[in-house]
Amino acid sequence: MGYLPNWTLPLRYEARIMDSLDGRKIHQLGWNVPPEDLPYIQEHWFQYPEPEYSLHLLLGMVYVFFFIASMIGNGLVLWIFSSAKSLRTPSNMFVVNLAFCDFMMMLKAPIFIYNSFHHGFAAGILGCRIFATMGSLSGIGAGMTNACIAYDRYNTITRPFDGKLTKMKALVMIVFIWIYTVPWAVLPLLEVWGRYGPEGFLTACSFDYLTRTFDIRLFIGSIFTFSYVIPMSMIIYFYSQIVSKVFSHEKALREQAKKMNVDSLRSNQGQNSESAEVRIAKAAITICFLYVASWTPYAVLALIGGFGDQSLLTPGVSMIPALNCKLVACIDPYVYAISHPKYRIELQKRLPWLAIKESESDTQSTTTETATSQAAAT
């Protein structure tokens, strides 16, 4: 279908209903939106039929599952890492900040669930703005936190003696993360630059990426650069340097062991057959993949909306990036924290009925493996 410019043509306020071949009434998206809320919806969505209620119900149930999984996973991370003295390290401050971002990401889920169970834009523009603002804060904040985690692990591996992070430096970095993040959420909220509106099935909300004006296109390009390209570049650079450093270190260890006519310089080589470079590569690839999987679809969606063929952005297609972001918000606590031996020990002490069975000796390692474990799970 052709592109219909948003907010540049007169809005059609009449009910959007048409007859199907079997005589049933087929509603268009927005048919049940009150007239006062119609100006906040991009005209692009009105050309598509309303999805079946079963699809709304399915998405609502998926979000209920995401909400519960995220609240439990990230809630445990916030509780354990904030209260356990053994985990109150500068590096773990970033883990707590990431868990807070993921917690906030899913704290807005009840708005989506309410909209889904009520066939669309039921929470109105106020609910939409709350949903989008929380999404912007948590999404951009998580991206920059991931970049800081990558930087911290880069220093830990490449400069093990003088690269240690202090609590004050970690706190300053976290404050910078939020100073960097807040404007990108507040400007569209106040409609100073950009604006928020519903998308897809009109149950989720994000910044407007469909209006073809200079200001909106400039906003899309700017937020794409500052909230996606910059943190992504930092993550890829730091983790690639970590992998390179560990590979070269392992190579040096093997060459030295060969000169000394021994199998390995590490005492626990037999207990841990998987090489350090393989484990660090897996951790780095997992972390990069999660960030790419969660935010690349949204970045592509925004670029297509602002500069490409908008007919590709059907309501169903536009719901996929949102699902990716929510899924990763549920997975993050397990990737960043549950793989942490000290976290599991603290969890075992406080919730013994989980039967985690983590031993204190599992946290001990040689220098090489300590660096590896710090890179895999701070």
Describe this protein with a few key phrases.
disordered C terminus, globular, 4 strands, receptor, 378 residues, Rhopdopsin 7-helix transmembrane proteins, sensory transduction, two-stranded antiparallel sheet, mainly alpha, photoreceptor protein, GPCR_Rhodpsn
Summary, kept brief:
The protein is mainly alpha-helical and 378 residues long. The protein has a single domain, classed as Rhopdopsin 7-helix transmembrane proteins, CATH 1.20.1070.10.
How would you portray this structure in words?
The protein has helices at 53-83, 90-107, 109-117, 124-158, 167-189, 214-259, 276-307, 315-338, 341-350, 367-376; strands spanning 17-19, 25-27, 196-199, 204-207. By secondary structure, it is mainly alpha-helical. It has one domain: Rhopdopsin 7-helix transmembrane proteins (Up-down Bundle), CATH 1.20.1070. The strands form two sheets. Strands 1-2 form a two-stranded antiparallel ribbon. A hairpin with a 4-residue loop joins strand 3 (196-199) and strand 4 (204-207). It is globular.
